[in-house]
Design brief:
- The protein is an all-alpha fold.
- The chain has a single domain (2-39, 56-354), classed as ADP-ribosylglycohydrolase fold (Orthogonal Bundle), CATH 1.10.4080.
- It has 17 helices and no strands.
- The chain has helices at 2-24, 32-38, 56-71, 75-91, 99-109, 131-136, 140-152, 158-176, 185-195, 200-214, 219-225, 236-249, 254-262, 268-283, 290-294, 303-317, 332-354.
- The chain is globular.
- Bound molecules: magnesium ion.
């Protein structure tokens, strides 16, 4: 019973991440108003003929998850495994690789140690792949260690670590609370504050979140209060607070969370991936609307693959022997070619539609 529940939550986290990522992807970098005019109505998959593909946000979460499984929770092996997974991931020319992650992985290829490869960036590249670590490590010390190892490999700025830890802490807290119940706001705030106790900018963000939740402020209004009325940027202190704010405001409601967060515009695949992962973990696999998953058309990163991965991650987190999920690597170049071509079509459409 307990294993089933954990499996449903961990799988929910992965599927929620993929759903949010793929729903947000077609409108990535569109401002809030343009999002609304380009994609009116309820959120649905619109990347490729009414279907969705996942981007780097989900891929990076998969890499982290597989690295944990292959290392059986040993930090040194995790570091090595993740560094090689990132190197090979880049070789396949992923369509949506962030600038900091790209530079860091190139540094890995040029022989820089995986403890030194991170670049000075406060982007959200490490935060988008961290919720899964929160779900896998109930022990706070171990959780922090793994988040730091994962973050430092690509991002050296302390703020990137704070954002990544905040996402992991929220996932860990979610998994402790039974489905149907909501965590206490005091505990959410305390964990967020703990992520960076001496950082005034972060503390002010947590203050704003608390005030917003207390006054039932909408996610849009919260984003406005951070100066993000035109869209949520890739700065980790913008992306993570908006995603976390939406997750807790609409706790357990995947649709309301993703609708409210993604429609703020900006870096919508990343805000969608983080909010979706947290909302999916809160609601469990069965709480994710089937229409969000039925239209994900991707390979090897399919819904079936993510369910298999969720099953193994649940085993790992229960201390039962777990294995890396076999991946059809041969398909990745073809998949990335299709992904890249579709992104270019979207860019062209934007130019045609908006340069009138
Ligand atoms: Mg992306």
């Amino acid at each position: 019973m307990e294993i089933d529940d954990r499996e449903s939550r961990v799988t929910g986290l992965l599927l929620g991440c993929a759903a949010g990522d793929s729903l947000g992807l077609p409108g990535e970098r569109l401002g809030r108003k343009r999002w609304a005019s380009r994609f009116p109505g309820p959120l649905r998959q619109r990347f490729l003929f009414g279907h969705g593909m996942v981007s780097d946000d989900t891929e990076l979460s998969i890499l982290v998850a597989q690295a944990v499984l292959s290392s059986a929770g040993d930090s040194e092996s995790f570091l090595l495994s993740l560094s090689w997974r990132l190197r090979y991931w880049l070789l396949f020319l992923p369509g949506g690789c962030g600038w900091a992650t790209l530079r860091a992985v190139l540094r890995l290829w040029f022989g820089v140690s995986c403890r030194e490869s991170g670049v000075k960036s406060a982007g959200n590249g490490a935060a988008v792949r961290s919720a899964v670590l929160g779900a896998l490590f109930p022990d706070p010390v171990e959780r922090r260690d793994f988040v730091r190892l994962s973050t430092r490999m690509t991002h050296r700025d302390e703020r990137a670590y704070v954002g990544a830890l905040a996402a992991a802490e929220m996932a860990a807290l979610t998994l402790r609370i039974p489905i149907g119940r909501k965590p206490e706001q005091e505990e959410v705030s305390a964990r967020l504050r703990m992520a960076a106790s001496g950082d005034a900018e972060w503390t002010e963000l947590v203050d704003r979140m608390e005030t917003g939740w207390r006054n039932a402020m909408t996610v849009e209004a919260f984003a406005d209060s951070l100066g993000l009325a035109k869209g949520v940027s890739g700065y980790v202190y913008h992306t993570v607070p908006v995603a976390v704010y939406g997750w807790f405001l609409h706790y357990g409601d995947v649709t309301a969370t993703l609708e409210s967060v993604i429609k703020c515009g900006g870096d919508t695949d990343s805000t969608g991936a983080i909010a979706g992962a947290l909302a999916g973990a809160a609601a469990g696999e069965s709480g994710i609307p089937p229409e969000y998953l039925d239209r994900i058309c991707d390979y090897p990163w399919s819904v079936t693959f993510l369910r298999r991965l969720g099953e193994q991650l649940a085993r790992f987190s229960k201390g039962v022997p777990a294995t890396v999920v076999p991946t059809a690597y041969w398909a990745i170049p073809f998949r990335n070619l299709l992904f890249g071509a579709t992104v270019y079509v979207h860019i062209l459409l934007r130019l045609l539609l908006f340069w009138r």
